[in-house]
Write a structure and sequence with these properties.
It holds the Pfam family LETM1_RBD. With about 300 residues, the protein is mostly helical. The chain is built from 14 helices and no strands. The chain is elongated, with a radius of gyration of 21 Å. The chain starts with 9 loop residues before the first helix and ends in an 11-residue tail after the last helix.
Length: about 300
């Protein structure tokens, strides 16, 4: 896992931003009382963003050393998410260094939070709205993957084709697939549906599902599956029931799972995912990476 380099000046920009908040917080509350809720979101966002950057900087070295299994599920989650968050907010932070730029750049960023701010600065309503949009895109890609797997199944010999086609039929009819049937498919995903046997378009769809770069798609997917399995192992020890709803949503998002059904529904899906993950390895990682299609209708 080559560590993602934090953009130069990011740390300095965050410190300047915190200083700006401390200097002008009274003026903001006094002059714009109606925006006090937004101000609190802004202040908390700065604190949480800076905390994640520090965790990421620490964890990146451990990952580069090949010791990812030593990390907690939360550290892996932050490691996966933070580069994307930095990339989104970095332009705002860097521009804020310029004299008086704070007065212009942040109001504009708050007008377009989805594009100019990381999730640390989103309100709860915005998180739900943007989260719904994100899952709709993921679900569309998952349906594309189902079509691609179905096409591959039509080229396979009996009985492998029959078993896979039966599972796809269950999914398309809105049913949930028993884990025992999925585990029996390991050899199919180790052979006919192994990553190196997939078309570039198929691998590209999987990359889009997980938010990975399309360049060197197979390598990206293998690395991501290692990250997921390490995280799943840690989650298994920690217990799904012991993580917050907000963390559970991000865990689901990383896996292309439906995180819009709050409560026991996604907890059950995560438990099933982790159980399936424990039966996969690098040779059968394709099964894990295709799993969102099997859980698209939820869990038992």
């Amino acid at each position: 896992f080559p560590g993602t380099v934090v953009m130069p000046g990011t740390g300095k920009s965050v410190y300047k931003l915190i200083d700006y908040v401390n200097t002008y917080k009274d003026k903001i509350s006094e002059r714009f009382p109606k925006t006090s809720a937004a101000y609190r979101v802004f202040k908390d966002g700065i604190r949480n963003f800076f905390q994640d950057v520090r965790i990421y900087s620490k964890v990146a070295g451990t990952v580069r050393a090949g010791e990812i299994t030593k990390l907690s599920w939360k550290e892996i989650e932050v490691y996966n998410r933070t580069p994307r968050e930095i990339k989104k907010i970095a332009p705002v932070l860097l521009i804020s260094i310029l004299p008086f730029a704070n007065y212009v750049v942040f109001p504009i960023a708050f007008m377009f939070p989805k594009y100019g701010l990381s999730s640390h600065f989103w309100s709860q309503r915005q998180k739900e709205e943007f989260g719904t949009e994100h899952y709709k895109r993921q679900k569309k890609i998952t349906n594309n993957v189902i079509d691609l797997v179905n096409h591959k199944a039509s080229q396979m010999a009996y009985p492998k084709a029959n078993g896979l086609a039966g599972i796809i039929c269950i999914v398309r009819n809105g049913g949930t697939v028993p884990l025992s049937l999925l585990i029996e498919l390991k050899d199919v995903f180790k052979q006919d549906l192994a990553l190196h046997r997939l078309s570039n378009y198929h691998k590209g769809q999987l990359c889009k599902l997980y938010g990975l770069k399309l360049m060197s798609a197979q390598q990206q997917l293998v690395k991501y599956s290692i990250l997921l399995r390490a995280m799943d192992e840690s989650l298994s020890k920690h217990g799904i029931e012991n993580i917050s709803s907000e963390d559970a949503i991000e865990v689901c998002r990383m896996r292309g799972l439906n995180f819009m059904n709050v409560g026991d529904t996604y907890n059950n899906v995560l438990r099933d995912w982790i159980h399936l993950s424990s039966h996969t390895d690098e040779e059968t990682c394709s099964l894990l990476l295709h799993s969102p299609m099997f859980f698209i209708n939820g869990s038992h």
